[in-house]
Amino acid sequence: MSIFDARHIGHAAEPGAPDAVREAASLDLGSRSTDCGLWALVRRVLGLAPAKFVADAEDQAFGIGGPRTLAVGVGIALLLAAGVANASRAGYDGARLPFYLCIVLFFLPAAVRVSLPGVSRTERFANVMIITFGLYMLRVIRAPQFFLGHDEYLHWLTAQNIVERRHLFTPNVVFPIGPLFPGLEITVTALAELSGLSIFVCAALVLAAARMLFVGALLLFYERVTGSARVAALGAIVYAGCSTFVFFDTNFAYESLAQPLLMLALLLCMRVREPDKESFSLLLTFGTAVLALAVTHHMTAFALAALVVGLTAFELVRGGPRAVGWRLALAAMLAVTAPVAWSWAMGNPGKAYLGPVFEGGLRELSQLLHFGPTGRKLFTADDGTVAPAWERFTMLGSVVLVCAGLALGFFRSLSRAGLPFAQGATPVTWRSFSSWSNSGLLLLTLLTIAYPVGILFRMTRSGWEIGNRMGPYAFLGVGVVLAIVVTTLIQGERRNRLRATAIGAAATVILIGGIISSEGPRILVPASYKVSADAASIEPMGVEAAVWTKEWLGPGRRFAADRVNRLLLSGFGRQLVSSTLQHGYDAGIILAAKEFGQNESDVLTKLGLDFLLVDLRLTTGLPVVGAYFDGAAADQMLSVPPTTRALLKFNSISNVSRIFDNGYEIVYDVRALSGRR
Amino acid sequence: VADGRMTLLEFAVGARLWPVQAVEWTFVVARALVIVPLVLFLQGALVLRALMPKRPIDFEFIVMSVGMSLSLTVIIGLVLHFLDAMTTLGWSVASGALCTGAVLWFRRSSGGASVLEFRLPTVLTTRATIVCACLAWTLVASSVALARYGAVNQRQFTYTDLWMQPSDGRSENVVTVGVRNREQRSENYVLEVMANGKLLVRWPQFHLANDEQRVIQVPISMALDPDGSVEARLYRADAPQRLYRRVWLSNSATEQ
User: Fold this and answer.
1) Predicted structure pTM score
2) In this predicted complex, what is the ipTM?
3) Least confident of A11-15, A456-460, B9-13
4) N or C: which terminus of chain B carries fewer CB neighbours within 10 A?
């Protein structure tokens, strides 16, 4: 029996979505309006008609266009991508376009193949898993030596604390909330303890497993919701276009494990609804995943709770308590209880951490809706770099394609979910709105409303973060709705290769647009250093300076530094760096101020600093990510780069020692000023 | 290593004892090959087999096993934290006990059946598939190696580190001066150490190969003024008039 065999997927093995079909067919659809003129056209375009379903082919041996060829193609594309990444490191400025073409090289054929009818479930799923692995490896190729993302360093610090102290919850000054949700770090450090490999390598392995888990669970979840392996595979292909999918959610950060656990829990939630001898075991597995998720990430755990409660509520409205069943009710209770209990036990840290983000985002969104200034220029980085035209068009193209897909697929999906009014029936009673047959698909379809809302948030500076984090949930719906458009409207049952190619190209545009909107010009490490640009600022000299502090000053010294050196000092140097988030004072003003006055002296004393690391490279440009320090008072002081004179003001202050100099970075010993000597 | 001890591997590399090195590398790789699947898949698979002994091993089972493994690891970690046992031994015992318990439970409930009995699909065992898989893995490994080579050899900056530290406490009148050459070529330097603004000692020919580092203990033969300092100045021999690097310790800093 094949490991991909569909016979164990319950109703999913049958063609179409039996729940939706059977129950929709049995409904009284009410009086139908007469098809005529414009209304008929609108109904046809929007899909306000009973849904049709297409059967998948039986399992068969892989064809030439199948996973074997794709696997080799992915290998070749990755090799080319590695060469292009090296070319970028060597100074070739035009490397981004060839890098994206390497992605197209393996993604496009797979997307075309997956969209065709008559392809076996085995091949569809294998193709999707292979391209998932290929997309994951892009992350490894981009950062093969050490972590490059800002958030990765924050989590690395927590992981190092666990390995060194053999305890959880050790405070992390640059990321106070992180140690309270240590699921990812526990997993990575467990692997590091047992295997003897480094945290960096173990993180890459855990994230690879998490990524495969996510897409595997997504495929099975979609298949279980829609009853079609083709829709499931196409949905997963579209999901890859979510801006967080390729890079953001493969960072060494808690969402990267939380999202797969959420997906597993959703799959198990669908499974526990079904009458099954193993339902208790599945419920136990669900409970384990939910508990691990609660320990891993606050927002994702609450998002799961909302999704499971939503599903339960839909079932309750649809069919009453009997439709819900005790297992689904218990699952909903578990999904709510676990994150609430864990957050309560940890002192509800999310409120203080996320509150300002939501406040700022909503305020700017309100300004945007009133045509006020939002502080964000589209397609322009904070250092003034404008995205090239092809990137702008691809990004816009991906948004247009998704919006068009949603316009065409929203009612088609509702129709497939068995909602009578979406099947063309005139709503005459309340029952016309509440008698759907597929609560899972209804929930996913309604989730797509989050997509345009997320786009609006992304147009603001503070709300960008919210819009970006909404993406993974919105795309749960977007994936399946667009897949339904393809299978019921665009491609249907025809094995038309031209249409399949067009569909594959559209999916590729959505994918590339998602990557560009997430990474922009920072997708590859450039040859030259850039100010406050995370991946483009983390380079060997800075790393060696941080390592020097550990070797010669010892770990645990109190340092003030800029945003990037703070990461390096805490990660490689194991120093206690100062952060506004943790200490309430912005040490950046000590570094950025033109003179060392009473205010700077007070902050220095209050923070009890031992050393300052001054990076003269900050004088060379505006910060790419918008902040030299941590976005607080010091950054508000700086509308232009700080001057060399301001940064070197400590040269002329008595009792300050200048203990390290590499020409770009200087370490000052200020213990005599802060009273720490 | 940080605490000054040397692992067997480092000793072997240093002494060029290649057989010892090969044995140790084999051990590292073998250990990883056993542990990685155990932590990321096997422990979840065994627990799921114990919970659902009649369930076939299919795609869904594999997906659930990975998820269960990751979830269980998180929960085991919490338990080990509260037991104050987040050590290699703690993890080994906990993981081992979980797997053994799951196997025993499965055997009891299934009447002694094999715990991971399943057959690979035929399509995965054909010669063409195996050849393609090997080729694909080779290409993937090569791409990672190539990317790593590029990253390791990328140097945005060429530079020289100069630093000064108080002595290690054995003598109050000694400072440590370090120079490290990262210019990507051999370099000749001139190094001067001054106290209270007066030249104390000078190295007119100070040669360092690329990546070479030299650390010097400099005795301070004069008493420092209250606002005085010990200063090291580094010049490149090809531009001796231009101060290249400069560090100093104030009087208060030398009294450590």
Assistant:
1) 0.88
2) 0.88
3) A11-15
4) N
